[in-house]
Every structure is written in C-alpha cells, then in structure tokens.
Amino acid sequence: MGDGPDLVVVANPTAGRGRAGRVIGEVTTGLHALRVPHEIRVSESGPDLERIAREAAEGGARIVAALGGDGTASLAANGLLGTGTALAALPSGTGDDFAKAIGAGRLQTAIELLANPKTVALDVIEVTTGAEHRHIVNIASAGFDSEVNETANAMTIRVGATGTYVVALFKTLSRFSPAAFSIQVDDQHLDLDAMLVEVGNGRWTGGGMKVLPAALMNDGLLDVCLVEAMSKSGFLRSFPRVFTGSHTSHPKVRMLTGRRVQIEANRRIQVYGDGERIGPLPTIFQIVPAALPVVVGPGAK
After folding, report:
1. What pTM was computed for the model?
2. How far apart are CA 66 and CA 127, in angstroms?
3. Bridge partners of 39?
4. Which element (helix H / strand E) includes 185?
5. What is the DSSP string of 15-71?
6. What is the pLDDT along the chain (301 residues), one digit of tens a residue?
C-alpha cells in the first residue's frame, strides 16, 4: 500500500456520449464543497480504466469512484476485486442502472454519499464465455436484449437511454427470430425456444427496465428471467410491463434463481454484461458472494 489519496475518481470521459467528461468539474466542485479530499484520474480506454482503478487501490485508496455509466462501474469493479478497496458510482452514463440499484442514481446524491460513505459487501457475477473471463456487477443478457444492445451501440442518433433502447428494440424486432436455448440453473435443466435470457444481480437494465424485480445484490443468488418464444405483436404488447416489473406474471415469462447458470443456443448469440459486449454463447455465470465493498445510498437494493 502506498500513500495515495483516500478517494480516487476514475473518469471515463466518453461515457454517456461525452456527458461524463462534461461533469468532471461538477464532481470536483461538489467534493470540494463537502471538504472531501480526492484525486481525479482520466482513462483513455476500457483496459486503461481497469488498470487505473487497480493502481489506485494498490496506492492506498480506500474508495475508487467510477464516473461514467454501467460499463465504467463494471470496469472499475474488475480492477478492484480482491484489493479490499470500495467501489462508488458517480452516474453520468447512458443507463446508470447499477448506480440506481445501489441508491446512487442521481449524480448529486452520489457525490454527497462520499462525504460520509457507508459500504456494503455486494455479490458480483463471474462470466466465462470461451476464453473470455470477466466479472459484472449488474445484469447480463443473451438473445433479443443483447441484439438490441448491438443495435443501440451502432446508432448515431441518441434519444436518451430509454428512447434509444426503444428505437433499437423496433429495429431489432423486425429481423429477429427466437433461438433454441439449453439452460442449466443449478440442477434444473431447460430446453426451450426463447426470445431472451437475462441473468443478474441488480433489478434494472436498459435505463430503467425492471427486468429482475426481486433481485437483491447481496443475497448470494443470481436472478434469471426467461422469455419464451412468442409472436412479435405479442411481444410488443407485453413489453411495456417490464418498466413496472409486472412482466413476471406473463405466461411466457419464467423467473428462476440459482448460484450457477449455463446457457447454450443453436445459433451465434452475443452475451452483453453491464451494457458491454462480453462474447458469444455458450456462457457460464457464477455468483461470487460478498466479493466487492460498494458505497451505497439509503435506497440501495
């Protein structure tokens, strides 16, 4: 351990289409007003951000605050795992679903939490797909939702997190067909034609869709949402229910929990975790209980 600052803010200036870069001054001003000593370090890439987070921890930082979106928090978490240094989220990305889940959904609220930080050890998810091996903090998707992610990331015109997702949803649905999935949740095996599978630790994805409404981030369990194959019109009619979490009672939706989930499919499907592409199926998800101390707010789930 070195003699570096207690709090290091790691900024991803490209998150939220540049919003994170624009609010660095706001974060600095807010922390100064609260008399919180800190240092800001700006990353140049994903691997760079992960490295900066790890180096900050090795330098003695007690907290590393990730300024950006879900992907930024996820990269910082990968750098911090095993160091004992706590992760904080300063939301300024496209979706900020992880920040919402830990009670830090608004930037000003998240800054204020750093004045008197309360940490809780949260679970993380170990994801293995082929040779790729990572950890995520919120939700992973395979199937329709991951294809929507691909579409959204390729879009040049953005209309906010949820608006962008909905536009990408319509674009993707026009060419989408369900896949034959083989899914193992602990000792339960399922073979079914499905639209998508979501595996997660948090409740929200896609900028506020409550896809796993019962998920808790420190219960030692993965929550799984399976949406079986249905007509495109049926899917569109039931889709709005995901914003309230009432989709769980739909006859084509199955909710499961377990510690280990293995997913295969009969065609190439990319897995997305915390909004970023991880790699193709087959994939194994395993819960790692109480692996990461995280600064949480009063509304944390």
Report:
1. 0.93
2. 21
3. 8
4. strand 179-185
5. GGGGHHHHTHHHHHHHHHHTT---EEEE-SSHHHHHHHHHHHHHTT-SEEEEEESHH
6. 456 789 999 998 887 777 877 899 999 999 999 999 999 999 988 889 999 999 999 999 999 999 999 999 999 999 999 999 999 999 998 889 999 999 999 999 999 999 999 999 999 999 999 888 999 999 999 999 899 888 887 887 767 767 777 888 889 998 999 999 999 999 999 999 999 999 999 999 988 899 999 999 999 999 999 999 999 999 999 989 999 999 999 999 999 999 999 999 999 999 999 988 999 999 999 999 999 999 999 988 8
* Residue given tokens 């915390």 in the structure block: 274
Contacts of range 210-215, beta carbons closer than 8 Å, 24 or more positions apart: 210/242, 210/243, 210/244, 210/245, 211/139, 211/242, 211/245, 211/247, 212/139, 212/255, 213/245, 213/248, 214/248, 214/255, 215/301
